[in-house]
Prior knowledge:
heterodimer; A: 224 residues; five-stranded mixed β-sheet; B: 4 helices
Amino acid sequence: xxxxxxxxxxxxxxxxxxxxxxxxxxxxxxxxxxxxxxxxxxxxxxxxxxxxxxxxxxxxxxxxxxxxxxxxxxxxxxxxxxxxxxxxxxxxxxxxxxxxxxxxxxxxxxxxxxxxxxxxxxxxxxxxxxxxxxxxxxxxxxxxxxxxxxxxxxxxxxxxxxxxxxxxxxxxxxxxxxxxxxxxxxxxxxxxxxxxxxxxxxxxxxxxxxxxxxxxxxxxxxxx
Amino acid sequence: xxxxxxxxxxxxxxxxxxxxxxxxxxxxxxxxxxxxxxxxxxxxxxxxxxxxxxxxxxxxxxxxxxxxxxxxxxxxxxxxxxxxxxxxxxxxxxxxxxxxxxxxxxxxxxxxxxxxxxxxxxxxxxxxxxxxxxxxxxxxxxxxxxxxxxxxxxxxxxxxxxxxxxxxxxxxxxxxxxxxxxxxxxxxxxxxxxxxxxxxxxxxxxxxxxxxxxxxxxxxxxxxxxxxxxxxxxxxxxxxxxxxxxxxxxxxxxxxxxxxxxxxxxxxxxxxxxxxxxxxxxxxxxxxxxxxxxxxxxxxxxxxxxxxxxxxxxxxx
Lengths: 224, 317
């Protein structure tokens, strides 16, 4: 099994253990760029919580299709070719009862801080007013089979002693634990981040607050 | 009668053997009996002898536990479980505090103030104060700072970080630093302990007025059990080829390693480490292993990766 598929399967398994039902899973070419664009009704908007695993990078020049901001990009493969998805195209969030509130993008630089604030300055956002939290990475990241399983477990049941964590805290703690599980030297610090609405910073899967309209960005080094 | 005794003895022997067996709960297993393994160590850091350690519960000072409960605002009415080896407090807002002797575990996560662009944290300790605060806190918990992994100059290897939150505020951005953090690992005979939650790691956040606002500590008691001769390079090579080692992580933007296609691996460094399992599946032992830094030649390109392998050669004990 390919590592990213095992990673996703481990996440699904732990969410199911926490009594969450899976709406869909798509791997490799089964996930198209149209599935992720807001103009095509991003498929993640039909679930409460979503996880996207892929490569990512950040731009170092103005993107004139998005008000001239600096932003992030994700290559979406289709057979032998690939197209870059602009983060600004995603329109994450849904007001439906079971619509998207929390979205995680595990990709290098998916929440690269300088570009994130540049996007905010140019009023370019990958989400609408219904998204509570967007969880991502501010640095390079390393593939790990356990990291998303940890996240699911910590959100639904807690770390060891059955006390669930907030979604944000589980994101940071899962990464700290996964990257701390070996003596591996990753060379550079790994930094995870959470962005979204400040009123939702302490959201958990069972208790959450409606967005209040104040954006925030939280950064935490998870290794070393 | 003889048959009955045999049936009883076999499981006992198996249990004893398995109890000290190293099982990696991380990494990706791989095997290739004709793998070309080359050694090019710049220095050999491996000792000739490595100890296996037996782990046992850690009972933290009741005074220290009580002090932490008070700091976190936990009272008797918040107690979720309490027995001889565990006490867990839990509040409705996800705040919790657990002390678990079997794992030497403290998970301290009290209720957090609600910060905003107009309500910023004040009097948060600077990075330069974290080492002192950490040393004092560990002293209260009965942990000796000399047990921590060391830097080359002999000082504790504290990893310091400064998490931050930025709030949008009417077109302006306001940065809040609610806490600063320190993380570190335990060292045994100079070798790092890996595996969070199993007896040798700690992460602490210090917030306003130098108070700990999060502690995630696992620090079991240990005692030397048995010394083993460490394996030779030839034996390690054999074990790698026969699937006893695991491959470490690679960057998310790197192509996965297809071991069937690999031309050779060149090991450039070797470091002794200890493993006590994971928080979910802890071992009763700290078992030594070797973390090898290797350059993998894929034919069309190379990639550096950690390979973790047993180091105890039980045949030579």
